[in-house]
Amino acid sequence: MLLTISHTTRYQYDRPARHALQQVRLTPKSRAGQSVQQWQTDITGGSKQLSYDDQHNNHVELISFDPDATEVVIHSHGTVESTNGTGIVGPQGGFAPLWYFRRQTALTRPGPGLRKLMRDLAQAGASDDVANMHALMNAIEAAVRYETGATHAETTAEEALEAGHGVCQDHAHIFITLARMLGYPARYVSGYLMMNDRVEQDATHAWAEAHIAGLGWVGFDVSNAISPDERYVRVATGLDYREAAPISGLLVGAGTEEMAVTLQVQQ
Known about the structure:
InterPro entries: Bac_transglu_N, Papain-like_cys_pep_sf, Transglutaminase-like. By secondary structure, this protein is α+β, with helices and mostly antiparallel strands. The protein has 5 helices and 16 strands.
């Protein structure tokens, strides 16, 4: 499937920032299940300072704002050829060893609710690793309904489970936490998903991957209760959202910020 993607993030300020640097992780790479045909990121109101591949092999661009800018636009666009690998990505790449992905973080640290859910899953005892991960995905979907506006970027996995609702980021964090507790390396994935009923998408998407012996990394999208297919494009991975966020950075001295995102993903 050939997917065309156009992703624009627009920042507006009532006065220019004294200093601003943004890490932009919006460039997908050719890898198992996807081949990037063309990709470009254009900046208005700022400039690219450098680019590099981080410890997860994500392509990162460092962007500074122009001194007098009150509007900054980051526009990423391109085409990606994708195939359906039933979620299988394959062996570990990048610079981080597998044991690194068993580490919990501030966003994935388990509390009483997650420990109880993990005990329930352990008692259920699925027959193999893949079945274990699908059981985990289904248990999270049942426990935490999808609901926008109920959580935010700093909501932890434990908080989302306790609230009983959240978005794809929360589902991914809960899956990662429990998979690590069960002994599997697990990581967060940010990227794009083409919804079948629309071109305009609400936001970028997030899901999780677990490393399974004999298969390597395998994706699980709790929010849609499936393993990723040809409608998905992987962009960045990390221990949690903070390491794979599409855009993150430092802003000093700006006034009120307004942000608007427009995203189109279509065949």
